[in-house]
Design a protein that fits this description.
- This protein has helices at about 1-10, 15-45, 45-65, 70-80, 85-110, 110-120, 125-150, 150-175, 180-205, 220-230, 230-240, 245-250, 255-290, 295-325, 340-360, 365-390, 390-415, 430-450, 450-470, 470-480.
- The chain has about 475 residues and is mainly α.
- It has two domains: about 1-35 and about 235-485, no CATH class; about 45-230, no CATH class.
- It is globular, with a radius of gyration of 23 Å.
- It starts with a helix and ends in a 7-residue tail after the last helix.
Length: about 475
């Protein structure tokens, strides 16, 4: 065991794992909580209730980015700028975000009937929509503030307790007050509003005191320009992932939206884990680039993608089985066969995020627009053409195609329009082939093997074989410590 630990410490991404593991631990704990409470919600709520809830939540996330001018993104980037003092920067970002939230809330009130009709959700939820957006802005700023300061422990603890009270409040409201989507929405957003005020008081109260230094901060226009320019990019994940749910709800109704949302919720567990490590790795990549260690950056990215391969293969093999196990209401099973397609979509997104680091580093905002525009246009056109005819099934495939085109666009731009050295896609080709093989094997096992237990056994054997192949150098060092290994 000691020998194994020593070999793990020698891995190029060990520091990333050590820092990311704190995010990882909190995320795993949060997801475990969500997993164990999913049967409760599938028992108490219908797929239609799930549809309304997911459309509401997705709208909150989208408006949270727009109403805050995406300034939490600017906070993360300029926090590492040596020319800007951090305290005035945080004060400027926080105060400006809240001011524009008030302005945009007043504007959207004038069009609330049109908005709620387009979303196909009850108008009574409008005020809760604004409450949710406010909480979303505060929590985004708080998480960004922690990430920039590398406060992994504080961030992890808060995220866990926020999710715990959020889930408990939702269950309580569903059981005792409203036994439908209203109980979950009201329960969650009341507790999130209370926590948002607590966070503002504990961590941000000194930044809410206007003494003029935030207004005197240099580079205000640069922060605003950078943040606003990234709004389309901040929306890209929602546009390519969550807009599908909104369109399904509009075209096919909340029941189909709920079926798709349930499958998507299982896929979100995967992408949350990989995002934790990618986020934790960003500060180290910035430092390596500042030290002109471009080859080490590439090595780090390849190591990160190796983790992505392992996680994606696990979810390709077992996520649908897990989804069926967690849904006490069998009506939620209908869309789970789409899980491998959704997981592959997020693999493309993970690889795209690795390349997008170079856009962040060189501050080439305009290049984000092209790759996002290509993906968004393709996604929108395909959804409009296919969702009315094929329903939520089409949404999974349009998401996959859109993320694929976004990755291709991002790679081409990085390769031919940036000055820094970026890894060729061939550096990841062996890993991509492993994922494709896993997809094929998963399909063949599900098609040809009737016994569920035999399916699981075969998938487990293949998955363990993949792990041994990925980390074959570590295995070789453990058993043959005196030999040199690649």
């Amino acid at each position: 065991m000691k020998r194994l630990i020593e070999h793990i410490k020698q891995l190029s991404f060990y520091d990333t794992i050590r820092h990311g593991s704190l995010y990882m631990f909190s995320y795993v704990a949060i997801q475990a909580m969500m997993v164990f409470t999913l049967p409760v919600f599938t028992k108490l709520l219908s797929p239609s209730d799930f549809g309304v809830y997911e459309v509401f939540n997705n709208t909150v996330r989208i408006l949270g980015i727009v109403f805050s001018l995406n300034l939490f993104n600017g906070l993360y980037r300029f926090y590492f700028d040596e020319q800007i003092d951090n305290s005035p920067l945080v004060k400027f970002v926080l105060s400006t975000s809240l001011v524009f939230f008030v302005i945009f809330s007043g504007c959207i009130f004038l069009f609330k009937d049109t908005l709620m009709s387009f979303l196909n959700i009850p108008e009574s939820l409008f005020i809760w929509l604004l409450i949710g957006v406010f909480s979303n802005i505060v929590l985004n700023l708080f998480n960004t503030y922690n990430n920039a300061q590398l406060k992994s422990t504080r961030s992890g603890i808060w995220q866990f307790f926020i999710q715990f009270f959020r889930v408990m409040a939702a269950i309580g409201f569903v059981v005792y007050f409203f036994k439908d989507y209203r109980g979950r929405i009201l329960g969650e957003n009341i507790i999130l509003l209370i926590i948002s005020f607590i966070l503002l008081f504990i961590y941000f109260r000194k930044y809410l005191l206007f003494k003029g230094d935030s207004l005197a901060m240099p580079f205000k226009k640069a922060v605003l320009k950078y943040s606003i320019s990234f709004i389309p990019i901040g929306l890209s994940g929602f546009a390519l992932g969550y807009l599908d749910t909104i369109m399904i709800n509009s075209y096919k109704g909340s029941n189909d939206a709920g079926l798709y949302s349930y499958a998507y919720k299982i896929a979100i567990i995967y992408t949350g884990i990989t995002t934790a490590f990618v986020t934790a790795n960003r500060p180290r990549l910035f430092s390596l680039m500042n030290d002109n260690k471009e080859n080490e950056v590439i090595a780090q990215m390849r190591s990160m993608f190796k983790l992505i391969v392992a996680l994606s293969c696990f979810f390709i093999f077992f996520s649908a089985d897990g989804g069926r196990l967690l849904a006490l209401n069998k009506s939620f099973h209908a869309g789970l066969y789409l899980m491998p397609i959704l997981i592959l979509s997020y693999v493309f997104n993970d690889l795209n995020e690795l390349y997008c680091f170079y856009f962040h580093y060189e501050k080439k905002v305009k290049y984000f627009y092209f790759s996002f525009a290509v993906a968004a246009i393709i996604n929108l056109i395909l959804n409009i053409l296919l969702i009315p005819k094929y329903g939520y099934v089409a949404a999974a495939y349009t998401t996959l195609i859109s993320y694929g085109f976004m990755l291709i666009s991002t790679y081409i731009i990085c390769k031919y329009f940036l000055t820094v050295k970026v890894p060729a896609v061939i550096r990841f080709l062996d890993f991509i082939l492993i994922i494709l093989v896993a997809l094929i094997i998963n399909y063949l096992i599900n098609t040809w093997i009737l016994s569920v237990w035999l399916q699981i056994a075969l998938k487990l054997f293949v998955f363990c074989s993949i792990l041994l192949y990925l980390w074959r150098n570590i295995v070789a060092r453990i058993f043959y410590p005196r030999k040199n290994h690649y």
